[in-house]
Amino acid sequence: MLYHYYIYGLYFESDIQLYESEKLLYNSPVNSDVTIKTSYHFLPETGSSNSNYSFSENRIWFSTDAGSFLIENGNSIYAAPKNDTSNNLLSAYLLGWCINFLMFQRGCLGIHCSALSHGNRAFLISGHSGAGKSTTAISLIKNGYKLLSDDIAFTSVKDGFMVYPGLPLQKMCRDIADSFCTGNNLVYIDELKDKFASIDTESFDPYPRKLSKFFKLEITDSDSVEYGVVSGFEKVSVLLNSLFMASLFRASEYPVYIKNECLKLAGEIEMIRIKRPSGKQTAVEICNIIRNYLEE
C-alpha cells in the first residue's frame, strides 16, 4: 500500500505510513515529487565501508541504530530499517535527517527551529536543546499563532525565502507534553530522548508564508531576560550555526552555496536574540517580547 503526503511544498509517495497516523495523509494523490521506499539493495555497498555515512552532492547515505538510509537526486529516499525498529523511530529519521538531506540536494537551507505564521508572514524560533523553543512555540500557538513546521524549516533564495508547511506535528519532551497536551493526539516517538509528538491539524497553517523574522533563544547566567537585534555578519554566523546539519558541516566545511544562501537570507530578515535565565519560568515574558516584535 502507498501513502501520500504533502510536505514542504512537495508531494511524497511512500510505502511507509509515517507515525501510522491517517491524520497526516494527503488525500488527493497526484504525481509525486519524491518517493520513499523500503529497500535493502544498497546495504552491501554501505556495509563494506568503514564509515557510517557517505556524503556527496546528489547521493547521501548513512547508518544509525534504526537502520540505513539512502537519499538520491533530491527525489528518492530509500530506507532499510532494522528488524526491531519501531515505526515511530523510523518516521522520525525519515522526517528529520532524510528530508533534510533531500532538501539540501534541492538547494534549500534546512534550519533547526520551529516555524510559525503570523498573518501572511512566517517567523522562526531557533535555539539549542533546552533553550525553550518548543515551550515558546506551543505558548504562541495557544494564543492564536499557527504552526508551519516543527524541528526543521526550509527556505531558499530561488523561492523568495518562502517557508513551506511541513506536517501538523510538533515534537516535545515529556514535561511539556504533560503540561500542554492530552488524549489521542499524542504519539510517543523517541524512547532514548523520551519525546512525544502532538498531531494538531486545527493549529496548523497549510499555506507557504514569506519569512520575515528570526528569533534566536539562548540560555544565560543572568537573572533576567535580555534581548536585542542582531546585525551585520553576526546574523550570518547565527544562521550557519542554526542549520539542521551544522554539526556535520562544522566537522568539515560549509559548502559555498550554503554560505551564500545564509548571506542573502541575513539581508532579508530581522533577527532578534533572546537570552533567558536558566531555571526560571520565562515563557510568558519571552512570548510577549516576540509578539511585540511581530506587531511592529
Mean pLDDT: 88
User: By helix and strand content, what is the structural category?
Assistant: alpha+beta
Tally of individual domains: 2
Distance between the termini: 49 Å
Principal-axis shape equals: globular
Extended strand count: 18
Number of helical runs?
Answer: 8
Proportion of β residues? 25-35%
Question: Over the alpha carbons, how many angstroms does the gyration radius reach?
Answer: 19 Å
CATH architectural grouping of the largest domain: 3-Layer(aba) Sandwich
CATH topology of the largest domain: Rossmann fold
Task: Please give a handful of descriptors for the protein shown.
296 residues, alpha+beta, 7-stranded mixed β-sheet, 8 helices, 26% helix, 34% strand, globular
Draw up the topology in text.
Elements: E1 3-7, E2 10-14, E3 34-38, H1 43-47, E4 53-55, E5 59-64, E6 67-72, E7 76-81, H2 87-105, E8 109-118, E9 121-126, H3 133-142, E10 146-149, E11 152-155, E12 162-163, E13 169-173, H4 174-180, E14 186-190, E15 195-199, E16 209-220, E17 226-230, H5 233-241, H6 246-250, H7 256-266, E18 270-277, H8 283-294
Parallel strand pairs: 2-3, 3-7, 9-16, 16-18
Antiparallel strand pairs: 1-2, 4-5, 5-6, 6-7, 8-9, 8-10, 8-11, 12-16, 13-15, 14-15, 17-18
